[in-house]
Write a structure and sequence with these properties.
With about 150 residues, the chain is mainly alpha-helical. The protein has 4 helices and 3 strands; from the N terminus they run αααβαββ. It has a 3-stranded parallel beta sheet with strand order 1-2-3, with helices on one face. Helix 1 packs parallel to helix 3 and helix 2 packs antiparallel against helix 3. The longest helix has about 40 residues.
Length: about 150
C-alpha cells in the first residue's frame, strides 16, 4: 500500500511540474499578446475573449467530471495574472504622458465586481487604487488606501 501511495505522489509531482511548464508557456504567449496590444494601443482587457475562455473551460470541466466553478476560478486566476503582466507592458509603452494623471479609486475593489471594475479601468489606462477592508494583501498593480474615512 505504501508503494502505491509513493507512486501516486510521484505522479502528482510530475503532473505539478507539467502544470508549471504549461503555465509558463501560457504567460509567454500572454506577454506576446500584451506587447502587440501595447504597440497597437489596444486595451489590455478583452471581455469578449475572457468570457469565451471561461465558457470553454466550464464546458471542458463538465466533460471531465470536474467542478466548473473550480475551473472558472483557476482560469480567472490565470487571466488575472496575464492582465497584470500585460498592464505593466502597456504602461511602459504608453505613448501619452497624461495616462499617468488618470487615477480612479475603487471602493470594495476586492470583491468580484470590484475586481472587474479595477481591471477594466486599468485596461483603459487608469492608475487604479483600491479601498477594501477585506484584505491586507493586494496585487502589485494596485495601491491600497486605508486612510479614507467614510
Amino acid at each position: 500500500m505504501t508503494q502505491d501511495l509513493d507512486a501516486w505522489r510521484q505522479e502528482i509531482r510530475s503532473i505539478d511540474s507539467e502544470i508549471i511548464n504549461i503555465t509558463a508557456r501560457r504567460m509567454e504567449l500572454a506577454l506576446k499578446i500584451g506587447q502587440y496590444k501595447a504597440e497597437h494601443q489596444l486595451p489590455v482587457k478583452d471581455f469578449r475573449v475572457e468570457k469565451e475562455i471561461i465558457e470553454r473551460a466550464r464546458i471542458k470541466a463538465e466533460g471531465l467530471g470536474l467542478a466548473p466553478d473550480f475551473i472558472e476560478d483557476l482560469m480567472t486566476l490565470l487571466m488575472g495574472h496575464s492582465v497584470n503582466e500585460q498592464n505593466k507592458l502597456h504602461q511602459e509603452k504608453a505613448k501619452t504622458p497624461d495616462l499617468e494623471l488618470k487615477q480612479v479609486l475603487v471602493v470594495g475593489g476586492l470583491g468580484r465586481m470590484g475586481k472587474w471594475f479595477s481591471q477594466y479601468f486599468q485596461s483603459i489606462g487608469f492608475r487604479v487604487s483600491i479601498y477594501d477592508i477585506k484584505s491586507e494583501v493586494l496585487q502589485d498593480s494596485y495601491q491600497r488606501h486605508d486612510d479614507i474615512q467614510a
